[in-house]
Amino acid sequence: MRKTVYFVEGDGIGPEIWGVTRVLLDKALEKSGCGGAIEWKEILAGEKAFKETGSYLPQETLETLRHAEYAIKGPLGTPVGGGIRSINVAFRQALDLYACIRPITYFEGLETPVKHPERVDMVVFRENVEDVYMGVEFMAGSPEAKRLIAFLREELGVKAAIEPDSAVGIKPMSARNSKRLIRKAIQYALDSGRPSVTLVHKGNIQKFTEGGFRQWGYDLAAEEFSGRWVPEEEAENAGGRLVLKDRIADNMFQQVLAKPELYSVLATPNLNGDYLSDALAAQVGGLGIAPGVNMSDTLAFYEATHGTAPRMAGKDIANPGSLILSGALMLERMGHVDAARRVRSAIAKAVALKKLPTDLARTLPGAQTLGCRAFGDLLGENL
Ligand code: NAD
């Protein structure tokens, strides 16, 4: 069945990497006998939207996406001069894209900063709408910040020595948002036969927010997945059941470097998930090839996980890999498993041939550097 996919080209290198991605995804579908399975429709956001409509994120775009099943976007810059804090964050909050999902696997042959990148095979599920990303904060010395500090001290009995001219921020984390994210992670692990889900949190210090995340995770698993998982202490007798464990965030950062093979699906609050998913991407070769998707209960919104790389824009030197691999995730979800496999194999073959865009070629001895379009052409041949 033909599916509509809405696309946002993106700013900076966005149009270049999107152009290559669209052609390649269509070609992969064609090769797998499903030519024309996607109807592409453009929607506006970012600078292009601002030029045409006077808004960085037009209501029409949000309205379209509220009724959409699939969308994909290039990177969007943060508008300079205020008005909107971040278009990406605005998308997530307006469309309730509560889960940011990033699979992290290694392509054999890529140069990486670690000795055994092949041991990394993880999928990060990051809570995407609350935590410090809600942006509830007040400027140092502002009347609001002073009032809030006074309220904390006088009304709530906070004894901590908060400097009176501090900037202050609020970190809301709820059972509802934590649980629906963790539900998605556990369901994914069960559906795909993954061995474990690890709840990542900083609950030793932030007992009610991050500690809540951990507790809500175990509560949810008991309430909704009873009999299908075991806690870590019983891992030896799991008998094929999922192992649910938890790690304090600072420990998790060293675990993914030292013992990555022990981890499979990670469920994290917003900020720690942001850090972890970029760090893990670097561990297997960089953001240039890290795919990602933001999901609500109705929409899967795929994206390039890097930014707009303004200094590369218009020079045909960017790596389209992240957006292409996000496109492969989308093909997979649509049921075009063969087309998705072809896209991944095409990238694996380019790595094996050592013909790569500059960000990957420059660290790989003997590699040939290809421009964005030439790399897209090579992938097309490899399909
Ligand atoms: P960036 O990701 O644009 O660049 C960081 C580094 O990675 C730069 O050296 C850049 O050249 C390189 N890089 C990024 N993408 C690349 C690619 N496809 N191929 C090769 N090299 C690549 O991050 P930044 O400089 O911090 O941010 C620039 C703008 O992008 C900002 O406005 C920021 O807000 C925005 N941003 C958007 C997203 C998004 O849309 N998801 C994510 C991060 C940053």
Write a short abstract of this structure.
This protein is α/β, with parallel strands linked by helices. It has helices at residues 14-31, 47-53, 59-66, 87-94, 143-154, 175-191, 210-224, 249-258, 270-283, 321-334, 337-353, 358-361, 372-382, and strands at residues 3-8, 38-42, 70-73, 99-105, 121-127, 137-138, 168-169, 196-201, 229-231, 242-248, 265-268, 291-295, 300-304, 355-357, 368-370.
Low-confidence stretches: none
Cofactors, ions, other ligands: nicotinamide-adenine-dinucleotide
Instruction: Characterize the overall form.
Output: globular
Quaternary structure annotation: single chain
Helix-strand string: EHEHHEHEEEHEHEHEEHEHEEHHEHEH
Instruction: Give the total of beta strands.
Output: 15
Largest sheet: 11 strands, mixed
Category by helix and strand content: alpha/beta
What does it look like?
The chain has 13 helices and 15 strands. With 383 residues, the chain is an alpha/beta fold. Strand 14, helix 12 and strand 15 (368-370) form a beta-alpha-beta unit. It is globular, with a radius of gyration of 22 Å. The mean pLDDT is 95. Bound molecules: nicotinamide-adenine-dinucleotide. Nicotinamide-adenine-dinucleotide binds at residues 13, 17, 75-78, 88, 287-288, 303, 306-312, 318-319, 322, 359.
Fold blueprint:
Layout: E1 3-8, H1 14-31, E2 38-42, H2 47-53, H3 59-66, E3 70-73, H4 87-94, E4 99-105, E5 121-127, E6 137-138, H5 143-154, E7 168-169, H6 175-191, E8 196-201, H7 210-224, E9 229-231, E10 242-248, H8 249-258, E11 265-268, H9 270-283, E12 291-295, E13 300-304, H10 321-334, H11 337-353, E14 355-357, H12 358-361, E15 368-370, H13 372-382
Parallel strand pairs: 1-2, 1-3, 3-13, 5-11, 8-10, 8-11, 9-10, 14-15
Antiparallel strand pairs: 4-5, 4-12, 6-7, 12-13
Helix pairs in contact: 1-10, 1-11, 1-13, 6-7, 8-9, 10-11, 11-13
Bound molecules: nicotinamide-adenine-dinucleotide (NAD).
